[in-house]
Amino acid sequence: MPAAIVVGTQWGDEGKGKVTDYLADQMHFVVRYQGGNNAGHTVVAEGHLLKLHLVPSGILYPHLTSVIADGVVIDPGVLLEEMDTLAGLGIDVSRLLVSGNAHMIMPYHLELEKVTERHLGKHALGTTKRGIGPAYADKAARIGLRIQDLFDEKIFREKLDVVLKEKNLVLTKIYNRLPLESECIVEDYMGHAQRLRPYVADTSKLIHEGLRAGQNVLFEGAQGTLLDLDHGTYPFVTSSNPVAGFALASAGIGPKEVDRVIGVTKAYVTRVGAGPFPTEDTGPDGERLGEVGREFGVTTGRKRRCGWFDAVVVRYAARLNGLTEIFLTKLDVLSGFPAIKACTAYLADGETYEDFPPHQSLFHRAEPAYEELEGWDEPLGEAGSFGDLPPAARKYVDRLQDLVGVRIGVVSVGPAREQSLPVP
Ligand code: GDP
Q1: 13 included as an active-site residue
Q2: What is the pTM of this model?
Q3: What is the residue with the minimal CA distance to atom 14 of ligand 1?
Q4: pLDDT (tens place) for every residue of the chain, 424 residues total
Q5: Separation of CA 127 and ligand 1 centre (Å)
Q6: Most ligand 1 atoms within 8 A of CB, residue of 51, 330, 331, 419 to mutate
Q7: Which position among 21, 28, 41, 109 bears the catalytic label?
Q8: CA distances, 8 to each of 228, 270, 324, 326, 415 (Å)
Q9: Is 41 a catalytic residue?
Q10: Which of 406, 86, 412 is nearest to 261 (CA)?
Q11: For site-directed labelling of 147, which of 90, 106, 107, 284 has its Cα 20 to 30 A away?
């Protein structure tokens, strides 16, 4: 297993942190490849319940090198805070590596995101307001500052002055805000530079050398496929590419290195923020999924919207990512429903669509065609093997596998590492 990619197949929060945790023992590197501190992996390990926003969840393992790759955007202050929290829990952060090519989130990104979201009013995207979108926008506009700029104060000042002039004009003239002081930013970021220096490395080279030496690399995405900037439900998406293909571009690794693409799929669906969601259930069933599944955002505390499994979405994700297998999470949350619904296709304008609609308007109008499956009452958390699950639960898993057309390799029935049942 040289390199494996773990990718969410829905709208995020599928439980990717748990999968990384499950596979970590076999790995040498865990590489975070996109997003910023808008992710929220929850990991239960060694008696700690950890909420990681930016640091790869591989940090919990002393044998692993954790990498933040080029394609991530980093708020250095937030990164250092997270490292301090981990160190405070006795977790060794010395094996964290950060790419010098990663772009930085700057104070004006946070400020601008706040005012632009407010300006959009009812059309607001519902972003996490961490400055991630504006940082990616500046990267594309080629006015971003990168981690490596921290280590040349002259260059840092030059780049900052150019960009801050424009940002301050926007802040003051358009949004009527106070301008930001260049000197304060320089002071803060130079302070971060001192502390971050030991962690910054040529991560692409190190991963490449690891692979050549027969080591295993796990790429860990944040968010989910339907939030992909290119392939998701634009504009209600994230500002980077969670799809598996981006792991390679981000880390600077060729496609031939990867032999497993593991789709993390929740046994139902959740979504945070605005945007279409055909199988959303706003009635008591959705409410119950949210309560039992504890569907609140790790980063924002926002309540997630909940609904039934959508095979159209997961088939689409299987195609976009080239999934080799699925890790099905949160099956335990479905215990106690007399019947469980699964969406097999969409109905729109008198037609049936089995594939994800290529036009957004069609997706907005899509009504789910449901199949009803038998529920089960038993709690699943104590099951020691897949065979211990009630027949109806096993049947549900089999049916999802048929609907999606990808092998379900492991079924998860609780947050702990042991609550992962390989499917024979
Ligand atoms: P991620 O961002 O994809 O890692 O997902 P989150 O961490 O936001 O959400 C997953 C949440 O579900 C975490 O609180 C996990 O501990 C929890 N979780 C993961 N797998 C299971 C499972 O099989 N059952 C239950 N009940 N909780 C799970």
Answers
A1: yes
A2: 0.93
A3: 42
A4: 689 999 999 998 899 888 988 998 899 999 999 999 887 776 665 566 777 889 988 888 889 999 999 999 999 999 999 999 888 888 899 999 999 999 999 999 999 998 887 777 777 666 677 899 999 999 999 999 999 999 999 999 999 999 999 999 999 999 999 999 999 999 999 999 999 999 999 999 999 999 999 999 999 998 899 999 999 989 888 999 999 999 999 999 999 999 999 999 999 999 988 888 999 999 999 999 999 999 987 666 778 999 999 999 999 999 999 999 999 999 999 999 999 999 999 999 899 999 999 888 999 999 999 999 999 999 999 999 999 999 999 999 999 999 999 999 999 999 988 999 999 9
A5: 21
A6: 330
A7: 41
A8: 10, 12, 13, 10, 16
A9: yes
A10: 406
A11: 90
Any idea how long the chain is?
Answer: 424
Task: Classify each residue of 184-221 as buried b or exposed e, where b means 16 or more C-beta atoms within 10 Å of its C-beta.
Answer: ebeeebeebbeebeebbeebbeebbebbeeeebbbbbb
Q: Which two tokens stand for residue 289?
A: 């999924």
What is the phi/psi pair of residue 305, to 5°?
-80, 140
Whether residue 225 contacts residue 319, with contact meaning beta carbons closer than 8 Å, is answered with no
Residue to probe by mutation, ligand 1, list 37, 266, 329, most atoms within 8 Å of CB:
329
Q: Residue 159: how many CB atoms within 10 A of its CB?
A: 16
Quote the ligand 1 centre to 105 CA distance (angstroms): 27
How many C-beta atoms lie closer than 10 Å to residue 416's C-beta? 13
* 44 touches ligand 1 (CB under 6 Å): yes
Contact 106, 181 (CB under 8 A): no
On the question of a cis peptide bond just before residue 235, with omega within 30 degrees of 0, the verdict is yes
Among 106, 22, 38, 389, CA closest to 30: 22
Q: Is 332 in the pocket of ligand 1 (CB under 6 A)?
A: yes
Q: Which residues contact 390 (CB under 8 A, 6 or more apart)?
A: 376, 377, 378, 380
Protein residue closest via CA to atom 25 of ligand 1: 414
Ligand 1 in reach of 412 Cβ (< 6 A): yes
